[in-house]
Amino acid sequence: RKMYMTGAFGAAHVGEAFMSDYELPGDSAYAETCAAIAMLFFSRAMLRVRRDGEISDVMERILYNGMLSGMSLEADRFFYVNPLETVSGLSGEQPGFTHALPQRPRWFGCACCPPNLARLIASLPDYAYDEDQGGIAIHQYIGGKIHTDAFGGVTIEHESLYPWDGALRWTVKANERFTLSIRVPGWAGEGARLSIDGVDIALLDVMEDGYASLTRDWKGESLVLLTLPMKARRLYANPRVRDNAGCAAFAWGPLVYCFEGADNPAPLCMLRVKREALPRIQPFDPNLLGGVRPLKIEGLRLSMPE
After folding, report:
1. Which of 1, 87, 15, 6 is nearest to 258 (CA)?
2. pLDDT digit string (tens) for 242-300?
3. φ, ψ of residue 257 in degrees (nearest 5)
4. Which one from 93, 112, 247, 258 is the annotated catalytic residue?
5. Which residue in the list 16, 23, 131, 157 is annotated as catalytic?
6. Over the Cα atoms of the chain, what is R_g?
7. How far is CA 194 from CA 45, 130, 190, 229, 243, in A?
8. How many Å apart are CA 30 and CA 240, to the nearest integer?
9. Per-residue model confidence as pLDDT tens digits over 136-182
10. Given this model, what pLDDT does residue 110 score?
11. 64-86: per-residue pLDDT in tens?
12. Stretch 230-244: mean pLDDT, rounded?
């Protein structure tokens, strides 16, 4: 009721506060970077109390959207406030909108967000994996290798091109019985596929609270594959969110895309997307924004007299 679809939190500038339920304005949003990071802290603590895929899904949405937008690609400019919409001549200038800057500043007098981002990125492994008496859980798909002395010693190495590709692979080296729990994101629906050493696993038989729980006697080296149905899709806000009436967003996996004035003639409010049009993912472009897969969709631009 109080979270933006990017995983951002805090709709009001005054008091850095929440507003009423479903009051989520885009152009005056506060959506502080530190608020998104705080929700990651809170969600991580919640997972230690109760493993739930919905909590991990929120963490993923924040990591790839509401938090990551707080830093430039070069890591030398930062957003304290992450508005979901900026308007030329209004954002950063007019009363009530001076906080919603259209470009990232180099620094702040109260610089809590940049170091918070730095320490969070440095501690990402703690958000990706978990261990308890029953086994090991994989919350986020972050490449690398982990090792634990539990269960006679377990090493897990993760490889993928996520989020641009939905083929995820874990090489598990172990020789004892334990449960490996892998989150299957809610946005994947029923299209996810799982296998161990080439043998398909029926997800419905092993799913519990958003996680595929694999309890077995692990022997030597095993290859676990999770294939997610990556496709471009529309997102809609709750109908009670007045500011988003008649609007749609577009996503690929965990990523929420946006239109920007940098590559679209302003004003963006004049852009329209055809109701029946489907977003199409484009090939990976390593030279665009450090490497992304653009989305294209058929639409039109309104023209009005000056």
Report:
1. 6
2. 999 989 999 999 999 988 877 777 688 889 998 889 899 999 999 998 899 999 999 89
3. -85, 165
4. 112
5. 16
6. 21
7. 28, 20, 12, 12, 39
8. 20
9. 999 999 999 999 999 999 999 999 999 999 999 999 999 999 999 99
10. 86
11. 999 999 999 998 999 999 999 88
12. 93
- Which of 170, 171, 207 is closest to 53 using CA atoms? 207
What pLDDT was estimated at residue 268? 86
Quote the CA–CA distance of 229 and 42 in Å, as a whole number.
29
Please check the confidence at residue 92 and state whether its pLDDT lies above 90. Answer: no
**Residue 62: closest CA among 31, 91, 86, 88:** 31
Annotated active-site residue 34? The verdict is no
286-to-142, 230, 305 alpha-carbon distances in Å: 20, 19, 39
Residue from 96, 90, 115 nearest 34 by CA: 115
112 as an active site residue: the answer is: yes
The dihedrals phi and psi of 62, each to the nearest 5 degrees, come to: -65, -45
Rounded distance between C-alpha atoms, residue 36 and residue 58, angstroms: 10
Average pLDDT taken over every residue of the chain: 92
The span from the CA of 139 to the CA of 201, in Å, is: 19
Give burial (CB, 10 Å; 0-12/13-18/19+) of 26: buried
Quote the tokens at residue 284: 């990976």
Confidence of residue 305 (pLDDT cuts 50, 70, 90): confident
Name residue 33's amino acid. Answer: T
Which residue type occupies 72?
S
pTM assigned to the model: 0.92
